[in-house]
Design a protein that fits this description.
The complex is a heterodimer of chains A (225) and B (370). Chain A is mostly helical and 225 residues long. In chain A, 83% of the residues lie in helices and 0% in strands. Chain B is of the alpha/beta class and 370 residues long. Classes of the chains: A mainly alpha (225), B alpha/beta (370).
């Protein structure tokens, strides 16, 4: 059976590449939006006196994650239809993946900013840094690696969920899987599944490399010793 | 330079951390805020650079009300060092030191030059340390960088919250000595918080002793030790306050001029005659150039053919600037119970004896009883 799947892969590489590209596009767009929104929300809820808001937001985001993806797609279709926006195709899928991606990013941003050593913050403020300078020059450089770990988690998860998005006509690597299931074509199902898995593993590898790259040198040295 | 007028702090939970505190720190003065934990010393310090807002009262720096200034600009003009240092781990030593110059938009090369200067000042070779990261430094080195950083933009005022608190005693002692030397040169106006009475006595020109948010006694270290205002101060400075006070005095303050010396080349019989005539059991000996070489004791003379034979070399000698506590411990190890005080050319300029020290301490005791 694996041979058949392999056969399919070498016979129709252009088709698979097309689906893969569609798949990546959906995931990248959704996570780009999620990272911008998630970091902004995370920074905001980490502010002074917003502990309760932070708890609420993180709780809300984790509830969101418990909604099964098919159900969320359904809900979004309804909402988009009511707003007379395209309710099938890429839009509902991108929105759903964005929502799923928010939790790990908000949570990691929040945790990273909260865990900055209070002595550093006191020293920074005592030397006359404004709140924004403290955030951009001290807290964020230390938080970025942790935030990226959240993004990595979100991307790997979304690569899996995006496959289901093919149901809504969003394209991507769900196509061969669903088509194969409908037509008793195990080779198609397997080919799609293999490529999705490889994509997830590769993304994980690439992102962990990026994570290492953005970790400030002084912090990296500190971890080794 | 720094003036606190009826300053109070009431926290939102109702605790009154500082009660009606008024004091003035003169320009170039090293003022130590001392007291047990929870006495309000750190709160007082942090109200000066407005890290903690004042509830009542006013703080003036050079006559300007600190409330009237932009808070970040105010802080950039005041050096700030804390016990936990708070170095930024993602920045190099040089970048850490340049924090305030960077905030003040100094040109790059000036920041760089200043960082080198400051590393030299705190005894860390710039070529070795400029580009290191805090995690590559020992605790003592990090503390030095912390001190260098608070001097970054050459502020006239420094606020220091137990800056030498978190390091081992030997390194702490060394850093204290070095910092005093730096202060001698720079003459900053310093507010310094500690709970360590020994550190306060050693470092401070004045000590503000606090308890429960109140200023109990504001005096120079000698006065605090000699004339504790009440039971609390007396207990806080400790039962050994007389010994602590010795550290504040120097050999030159109590030494007596040597009335009698003998040259080594003189004969044994001359020496015996001299000692008998003055009914003394010992005499300091000097060589032909007038340098102090040791002691001649009466009991050694009988069995010696020359004074060089009879000479007991001095185990240790003091300089005029030697603190009396050190001189006292030399005295305890000296054969004659005396310590010779020598100038830089090893000429005898004075003698220290138990009697001389006792006289000084007795004087202090009298003043306390008044």
């Amino acid at each position: 059976m694996i041979q058949q799947a392999w056969q399919y892969m070498i016979e129709y590489p252009d088709k698979l590449l097309g689906w893969t590209w569609q798949h990546l596009q959906i995931v990248l767009i959704a996570n780009a939006v999620a990272v911008v929104l998630g970091v902004l929300i995370g920074m905001w809820v980490s502010g002074k006196g917003r502990e309760q808001i932070a708890d609420g937001v993180i709780y809300g985001a984790s509830i969101l994650m418990t909604i099964p993806s098919l159900a969320l797609f359904g809900i979004l279709m309804g909402v988009l239809y009511a707003m007379s926006l395209p309710s099938i195709g890429m839009l509902p899928v991108v929105i759903a993946l964005t929502l799923y991606g928010l939790l790990p990013i908000i949570r990691n941003t929040h945790t990273a900013l909260r865990e900055v050593d209070p002595a550093m913050i006191e020293a920074g403020r005592g030397m006359g840094m404004s709140g924004l300078q403290l955030l951009l020059r001290v807290k964020m450089p230390l938080a970025v690696p942790v935030i990226l770990a959240g993004l990595r988690q979100a991307m790997v998860m979304n690569i899996g969920i995006a496959a289901i998005g093919s149901y809504l006509g969003a394209g991507g690597l769900g196509q061969p899987i669903f088509r194969g299931l409908a037509n008793y074509r195990k080779d198609l199902v397997l080919a799609g599944a293999i490529v999705v898995s490889v994509l997830a593993v590769l993304t994980d590898l690439v992102m962990s490399g990026v994570e290492r790259l953005v970790t400030p040198k002084g912090v990296r040295i500190g971890r080794k010793t | 330079m720094i003036r606190l007028e009826h300053v109070s702090k009431v926290f939102s939970d109702g605790t009154e951390a500082v009660k009606d505190l008024s004091l003035e720190i003169a320009e170039g003065e090293f003022c130590v805020f001392l007291g047990p934990s929870g006495c309000g010393k750190t709160t007082s310090l942090k109200m000066i650079n407005r890290l903690i807002p004042i509830t009542r009262g006013k703080i003036y720096i050079n006559g300007v009300d600190t409330q009237k200034r932009n808070v970040n600009e105010l802080r950039r003009d005041i050096g700030y060092a804390i016990q936990n240092i708070g170095l930024f781990p993602h920045l190099t030593v040089a970048q850490n030191i340049s924090t305030v110059p960077m905030l003040k938009h100094w040109p790059r090369d000036r920041q760089h030059k200043r960082a080198r200067e400051l590393l030299d000042l705190v005894g860390m070779p710039p070529d070795t340390f400029m580009d290191r990261y805090p995690s590559e430094l020992s605790g003592g080195q990090q503390q030095r960088v912390g001190v260098a950083r608070c001097l970054g933009a050459d502020p006239p005022i420094l606020l220091m919250d137990e800056p030498f608190g978190a390091i081992d005693p030997i390194t702490r002692h060394k850093l204290q000595e070095e910092f005093l030397k730096i202060q001698e040169r720079l003459q900053k106006t310093i507010a310094f918080v500690t709970h360590d009475i020994d550190e306060a006595i050693k470092m401070g020109d004045t000590i503000a002793l606090m308890r429960n948010g109140e200023l109990i006694q504001y005096a120079d270290p000698a006065a605090l030790l000699a004339q504790p205002k009440d039971r609390f101060v007396r207990d806080f400075v400790g039962a050994d306050r007389v010994l602590k006070g010795l550290r504040l005095l120097r050999a030159r303050d109590v030494m007596r001029l040597p009335k009698l010396t003998i040259r080594l080349r003189e004969s044994v019989s001359d020496a015996i005659q001299l000692l008998e005539a003055r009914s003394r059991s010992w005499v300091p000996a000097i060589d032909d150039d007038g340098r102090f070489v040791g002691w001649i004791e009466r009991e050694d003379l009988e069995t010696s053919s020359s004074l060089t034979d009879a000479l007991t070399p001095a185990v240790s000698t003091a300089a005029p600037r030697t603190p009396l506590n050190e001189a006292l411990s030399m005295m305890l190890g000296s054969a004659t119970g005396s310590v010779a005080v020598l100038d830089d050319d090893e000429h005898l300029v004075g003698l220290l004896s138990f009697g001389a020290i006792r006289d000084v301490l007795a004087l202090d005791d009298e003043s306390e009883d008044e």
